[in-house]
Amino acid sequence: MDAMRVKQILSSSADIDVTYNGTSVWIDQLHEDGKTATVHLRGPLEERSEVNISELKE
Questions:
Q1: What is the pLDDT of residues 4-13, one digit of tens each?
Q2: Which residues pair with 18 in a beta bridge?
Q3: What integer pLDDT is reported at residue 57 of this predicted model?
Q4: Tell me, what's a Pfam family for it (predicted)?
Q5: Tens of pLDDT along 13-28?
Q6: Least C-beta-crowded within 10 Å: which of 3, 23, 41, 42?
Q7: Which residues pair with 49 in a beta bridge?
Q8: Domain architecture of the chain: domains with CATH
Q9: β pairing state of 56-57 and 48-52
């Protein structure tokens, strides 16, 4: 995924399915470097991780 698409997903009100390593995640924010983002797993756990956006899949 690229930074422009991450920005589109963050600004969308739609529920867009994004996965990281095959696991469904929510994108919390795109970092200023434009290459990493903070995500958390969908579900009850709120554990957040910093990931490379190239590893996010739609």
A1: 999 999 999 9
A2: 25
A3: 98
A4: SspH
A5: 999 999 999 999 999 9
A6: 23
A7: 39
A8: 3-57 (2.30.30)
A9: unpaired
Is 37 exposed, middle or buried, given 0-12, 13-18 or 19+ CB atoms closer than 10 A? buried
- Whether pLDDT at 46 is above 80: no
Phi, psi of 17 (to 5 degrees): -75, 120
Query: Tokens for 3?
Result: 């930074």
Residue 56 amino acid letter: L
DSSP string, 3-56: HHHHHHHHH--S---EEETTEEEEEEEE-TTSSEEEEEESSS---EEEEEGGGE
Which amino acid, one-letter code, is at 30?
Answer: L
